[in-house]
Amino acid sequence: MSTRVAVLKGGHSLERQISLRSGAQVEDALERLGHDVVPIDVGNDLVPTLLAAAPEAAFIALHGRDGEDGTVQALLEAMGIPYTGSRPAACMCCTDKALAKHLMGQAGIPTPEFHAFREHSIGVWDVASALPAVQDQLGFPMVVKPATQGSALGVKFARTSEELPSAIVGALSYDRKVILERYVPGRDLAVSVIEAPDLRALPVVEAVPSEKNFYDFEARYQIGRTRFVCPAALEESLTERAQEIALSAYRLLGCHGFARVDLMLAEGSDEMTVIEVNVVPGMTETSLLPQAADAAGIGFDELVELLLASAFAQHRRQPVPS
């Protein structure tokens, strides 16, 4: 059955170009599936554009702020438009990596030890004076990253105490809150979770950078910079453990439809920790969700159809305002 679907993409975030690529891939799939596609490069005229288009559903391919932090989701709910992915509360929790890590830690879901500071407190409270204690707890090298950016944007390595202040300043150029996290050397894994319609974890993907010891923004999105292995070459028990942790994080944070959980398998051990949960995972040619789906026997077009169906399923379950 043909559905009029608005594909929301682009926007003003630093992940705009990736979002445009994700959106284009989704649009092509929806057209092949026979749907009436309305591409929307999200700008200041979003509301009148949606009103004029009158879509029956929205497929969110909008990465970064506004697309992943619950903003556009809340707008679509106010307009009564079913949409793909998680509801606003889950988006807020997952986008704020510090909040997500606090919640996971309280729930017993393993995540690397960390501290988070707001830009305001660093200046007003002289947080720099506390850095020696933080260094003693987390050690070096240390991962320094903005609390609300995705795609490894703004992530820095501090290998010494001398490098730490500049890494913090660099991360703060992307966000007003910074996370200082214990570095976990090891294997970079990703588990995508979908509801199709039942909740399931897809095969594990391992990202292996070809040139660097760190999976950064360029390595993630430039073809040839990273080699992806799916299913990852893991013992069955480790695969099951990664999927169990991913499902636990998905449920805890209230995700819906689909999400991707990024983990690290510590070098030389079976220790597995959650780095972050992504509520609008990429749908580009190098993205991990489509690769995992393909390994599970789900082609790209079928994946898009399943995600669209989950939008209507979620909309039917939403309480009607009194």
Structure description:
This protein has 322 residues and is α+β, with helices and mostly antiparallel strands. It is built from twelve helices and 13 strands. The chain has helices spanning 16-32, 46-53, 71-79, 88-95, 97-107, 119-124, 131-138, 164-172, 217-221, 236-252, 288-295, 300-317, and strands at residues 4-9, 36-41, 57-60, 114-118, 142-146, 156-158, 177-182, 186-195, 199-201, 205-209, 226-229, 258-266, 272-278. Strands 8, 9, 10, 11, 12 and 13 form a six-stranded antiparallel sheet that branches. Strands 4-7-5-6 form a four-stranded antiparallel sheet, sandwiched between helices. The longest helix has 18 residues, at 300-317. It is globular and about 60 Å long. Mean pLDDT is 91; it is low at 215-221.
In short, what is this structure?
The protein is of the alpha+beta class. It contains twelve helices and 13 strands.
Mean pLDDT: 91
- How many H/I helices? 12
Termini gap: 32 Å
* CATH level-four homologous superfamily name of the largest domain: ATP-grasp fold, B domain
What profile does the largest beta sheet have?
6 strands, antiparallel
CATH architecture annotation of the largest domain: 2-Layer Sandwich
Defining key terms:
alpha+beta, 6-stranded antiparallel sheet, 322 residues, 3 domains, Rossmann fold, Dna Ligase, domain 1
